[in-house]
Write a structure and sequence with these properties.
With 391 residues, the chain is α+β, with helices and mostly antiparallel strands. 64% of the residues lie in helices and 9% in strands. The protein is built from 17 helices and seven strands. The strands form two sheets. The protein has a five-stranded mixed β-sheet, with helices on both faces. It has a two-stranded antiparallel ribbon with strand order 1-2. The protein is rod-shaped.
Length: 391
């Protein structure tokens, strides 16, 4: 029960003029309600599109409820009245009327009822003291009514937002998995403000320490106003997955893989490549956004474990373990990065060029490799990249 701090009946002065005021207002309730509804629609654009018959009924019920409760000096709202007010708040939420407009409508209604009561008082010679008591009673009751209506509106609005988020996420998952018909894809895309005939890149992102889901989704264009949003996203197995009209920025906070731009009905292909790009970037400890083109052969290194194991046994195991082996491996890695230029390698490592030559010769001696053969160089690179992944 919601308690109202209303004056007692004795204070209100239950006498002839008091009864005459309420009798007149209740007798003219239809006119009062019509004036309230017209004022709401004149001042609040969102109320102009509401079903007229239903709005008339709701306004009429609430005007009568206000008048009878104020007349009786009720100290509480019973469960039925609370449910009635909550139902109106929920209805406005489902009709898309913002809570600010709902509260404004209540204020307009109170103003109209009070103004009408003043006219009645003048007609019947009712003194200002009685009118003031009436205003106090109406305001006290309407305060509780406004709180109840607004609370129900917010709860319904939250439930609608959650349901809409779930629907959008289900659509994104279906689009990426290819389980939604092409015609339905276009309809949903248009409903979410996207070009159904456009090209989209599938995106799969994984958070890193310090990054937030909101921040990453904002950077990827999955959050913001409809005008700024470039696509849609959902969580799949803990990853942020979605599709966007633009590739993600290279410096996005997190690890992101993305696929090629494709029509909506080919998103599963792009998503498969995005997932592979993400897995590769994660394996190599990279940060930012990558597609398979930017990762190159690293994708093969990350996924072809059989070939990787052969390369490891052939080019890394013979080196043994310990500091000497680590020096040879580090030298080989820098040597390849420097375009197989010994002097540049020595400068990068801060050692004499003869030291570089010795380590290269030692590598060839232990592995039996000929570093002048392109195929061998590629296999050595594969082994070194595998080692960089920590395998």
């Amino acid at each position: 029960m919601a308690v109202l701090d209303l004056p007692a009946k004795e204070v209100l002065g239950v006498n002839g003029s008091w009864d005459r005021l309420f009798d007149t207002l209740l007798a003219e309730q239809v006119a009062v309600s019509a004036r309230v509804r017209e004022a709401m629609q004149a001042q609040i654009p969102n109320y102009r599109g509401l079903p007229l018959e239903r709005l008339d009924v709701e306004v009429g019920v609430e005007v009568e409820r206000v008048l009878r409760s104020a007349r009786a000096g009720k100290a509480a709202l019973d469960d039925a009245e609370l449910a009635e007010l909550a139902a109106i708040g929920e209805a406005r939420a489902h009709q898309g009327v913002p809570v600010a407009d709902v509260l404004r409508a209540w204020r307009i209604g109170v103003e109209v009822v009070v103004a009408y009561a003043r006219d009645v008082a003048q007609r019947h010679g009712i003194d200002d003291a009685q009118v003031l008591e009436f205003v106090q009673s109406v305001l006290a009751w309407s305060d509780v009514a406004m709180v109840t209506t607004a609370g129900a509106h917010r709860r319904a609005e939250l439930a609608l937002a959650v349901a809409e988020e779930e629907r959008r996420a289900a659509f994104v998952r279906s689009a990426l998995r290819g389980t939604v018909p092409a015609a339905e894809l276009r309809v949903h895309a248009e409903a979410y403000g996207l070009d159904p005939a456009g090209q989209y890149v599938a995106v799969r992102a994984r958070l890193v320490e310090g990054a937030t889901r909101d921040g990453v989704e904002q950077a990827l264009g999955f959050r913001g106003t409809l005008l700024r949003r470039r696509g849609l996203s959902a969580l799949i197995d803990g990853d942020i997955c979605g599709f966007s009209s633009q590739p993600p920025p290279a410096d996005v906070e997190g690890v992101v893989g993305y696929g090629p731009a494709v029509p909506l009905d080919r998103l599963p292909e792009s998503h498969q490549l995005a997932a592979r790009a993400l897995m590769t970037a994660q394996a190599f400890g990279l940060r930012g956004a990558y597609d398979l083109d930017s990762l190159g052969l690293r994708a093969a290194v990350a996924t072809d474990s059989d070939i990787g194991e052969i390369m490891r046994r052939r080019y890394l195991e013979p080196l043994g373990t310990g500091g000497a082996a680590e020096e040879v491996i580090a030298t080989m890695r820098v040597y390849l990065a420097c375009g197989m230029h010994s002097e540049n390698t020595a400068a990068r490592l801060f050692v004499h060029r003869n030291t570089v030559r010795y380590r290269l010769a030692r590598f060839e001696e232990l592995t039996g490799a000929n570093l002048r053969e392109p195929a061998v160089l590629f296999e050595v690179w594969w082994a070194l990249e595998l080692a960089a992944m920590g395998r």
